[in-house]
Amino acid sequence: MKNLKLYNIVIGYMLIYSLLILLSGVWLFFRSQGVEAFDDILKIITHPASKSLHNIIEILTPHIFAMGLLIFIVAHFLLFSIKIKQKQTIIVTLWLLFFMLLNNSIYIFISIELISSGLIKLISLFGFVFLFILLLVMVWVSL
Amino acid sequence: MKFLVTKDSKLSPLLRYLIIGVLFAMILYLFLDILLHGYLLGFDIDSIKATLFGDEENFIEPILFDTLLMQIHINLFFSLIAIMTISSLYIRFFNSYERTKIFVHLMLFLGFLSPLLLLITFLYLPWLLLGFLSIFFILHILTIIISILILKKLIFR
Fold this sequence. Notes:
The structure holds two protein chains of two kinds. Chain A is mainly α. Chain A has one domain. Chain A has five helices and no strands. The mean pLDDT of chain A is about 90. Chain B has one domain (about 15-155). Chain B has five helices and no strands. Chain B starts with 12 loop residues before the first helix and ends with a helix.
């Protein structure tokens, strides 16, 4: 059963892929908001780009599926961790799922003008990015 | 990591058929992915260059950066799922430690290098196009061969 060690290679590469998917996703979001420089990020708070409900559903549908699946795939490796306690994994994963749902759904409220500020969108985005990177680090530490 | 190992290493018939099914789906996906990239970028080197960098003589605009980035974003996700599945099955069914290690590294490394090279080619280094194409085809051919080897082992065991 010495081949069991080889699964660590697959898990290690999965962390790199996940990070690249996260970075390209954030890059795509900022581009859709017209962000060219760091200062432009703050403009999202006052003037989030207007999107139609059709456009939002089109983005939201694959993201809910793919992000939910990716969180599950990454987090389930912590079942085998001997360094990270399960209670810590549960807390991080549940907060991550909460931020994922908030980040994906908040634009619906902006589009129907229930919320005019993009602040919650930015907070949920950075919260999601922080927690996802934390989850990746937890898996990396467990390898 | 502490993986769970059961004493029963023999495959159940259901699991065997399920793995055969998923491998057929993976092989089909890999062929279709080559076709999809052909439709998106072009089927020969001149049309790929025209798609990526535009062609003034024929009034062809370069592909939008957002479109390309979205394609790379999607590709990374699908590559992760497909190559992770095939690598895990390869580790499960092949005993040679060193050879398995090399092929697993190769598949997973080329899997993320291919979309990254496409991005670098488009943004900074157009001369890397042949490098991207070579890696793209090596990855797909290697992954298809590995899948066929696992299938062979499962069908003719």
